[in-house]
Amino acid sequence: MRLFLIDYENVNSAGLHGIGQATAEDRIILFYSHAANTLSFEIMDEMMDAEILPERVCLEQTGKNALDFQLVTFLGYLIAKEKADEYYIISRDSGYQSAITFCQQYFGVKVHLRPSMKAALGSKKQPAKKQPEQPVQLMQDVRKAAKKTAKLQPVAKKVKDVRVQDAKKGKRASVSLRKKATVIQVQPAQSAPAALPKEERIPVDLEMVLSLVHPTVNADVAAEILHCLQDSHSKTEFHNALQQHFDNDNAKLYYHSMKPCFVTFAE
Hints:
Blueprint: E1 2-7, H1 8-11, E2 27-32, H2 41-50, E3 55-58, H3 66-81, E4 86-90, H4 97-107, E5 111-114, H5 117-122, H6 134-168, H7 176-185, H8 191-194, H9 206-212, H10 219-230, H11 235-245, H12 248-257
Parallel strand pairs: 1-2, 1-4, 2-3, 4-5
Helix pairs in contact: 6-7, 10-11, 11-12
């Protein structure tokens, strides 16, 4: 069972996107206040289609960070009473991180901070992506093509001689080898590698993110930053992705910390 505590004051309806991916074994508790008590029809339809109805806890006492304290207190209570495999706090407020670290160190439980249900429920699928390795693979393919070109040049000459002899004998010449030689010869042996001077030295992984970001972040936050980088095709997309997952100050900090990896982008 997974247990989700949603800071609805912080994420609103956007934080509930992906709630339809939850299972019947999951428990979802929504913390809200009278200042944030509306729900979009899109999210309502998603919950109805998946037959999911979150538990609701309304904040009656107002004040700075009142809902945050209430949510963290309830998290401690649930850790003591519930036997969940993982605990998730759905919020873009990085202030929860100290409480999460405390729970992990003293209670030995898995607690994660995610900006939305979609990010939480889809996070386990991310390791399958290996985009940073693609430039290296591309370089290897280009080099293989260059070697084949050098080998096929004398072969192409032999094929031409064979076709001439067959034509004298009245035989129909074969074109399959000629097509293969022609297609490969179109690609110069040295021009393609010259277009990729930097891409071969870019394996961006979780360890690199942890080394680049300062002040230091934990593995969950680093994984979220890496996910934003891998899903982006430009610096602009990367910046927008960070702003969707983190508050404005942290998004700027992570963006500037990851500048050494911008060579992966085409722009």
